[in-house]
Amino acid sequence: MGALSALIQVAVAAVAGFLLGTGGAVVAAGAVAVVAVPYGWAVGRVRAYPPNLRGVALFAVDHSWSLANTIAGAGFLAVNLARGHHLDPPRCCRRGRIDIHEQAMRGYATTLGNVIAGGTPANERHEDLHVRQARLLGPLYLPLVGLNYVVFSVLPVWWLYHDHDGYPITGPGRYFTRGVYLHVWHEAWAYRRDVRDRYGDLPVPRPGRRLSRRVHRRERLRRGSPGEGDRAHYTNDKT
Asked: Does residue 100 contact residue 77 with C-beta atoms inside 8 Å?
């Protein structure tokens, strides 16, 4: 499937570039080939797609509705390979994704398209959800993510419901890592799922967001405790 992946990406780029003439088709095809060929090689190297109907379906989505995310992921992969990073075949074989062993950003796992850099067993389900988000929203995914980052950076409405005790904003860096990052829609969705995976239906907030007063009151009544200790228990557990 690797060669087919590269061929599809280059062909679509050529067709799109042809709108600007023959020269545009050549330039677009050449530019995409630079990242599509390494991506196609990686798809074959790690055997990314399972050899069954599910694998065919995932490949079809990644190279049609979610093609923009696939090309973006291919660029992300090419940059990581150029930096000397390595594929992690055991983690992604037949799982519909490409894993890179090293982190692209220190301290963070990063996912673009179906390419994951720095994934671990602890954050695997979180990063896999980002892959599924891209497949679900297709060409809308990256624009919506970018727009949310811009809006929350200049208009921090999340400040009103942020857990300032558990995740204090102490400077510009923390403003983005503990504030904007934790509250943009695709991360909030992933962290909310993380909390449910870990605690089930217990009223534990996802990172960065405090519990509502109603939930605190209900839990205090259920546990028969004054509440302050419970609140500390919830907010000190930073995923």
From this structure: yes
Q: What residues form DSSP beta bridges with 110?
A: 117
pLDDT of residue 101: 95
**Cα(218)–Cα(202) distance, rounded to whole angstroms?**
11
Q: What is the mean pLDDT of the chain?
A: 86
Q: Cα separation of 14 and 118, whole Å?
A: 32
Please give the model's pTM, rounded to 2 decimal places: 0.85
Angle between the 141-154 and 124-137 helix axes, to the nearest 10 degrees? 110
Q: Copy the structure tokens of residue 153.
A: 């950076």
Q: Is 100 helix (H, G, I), strand (E, B) or coil?
A: strand
pLDDT digits (tens, 9 = 90+) for 32-82: 999 999 999 999 999 999 999 999 999 999 999 999 999 999 999 999 999
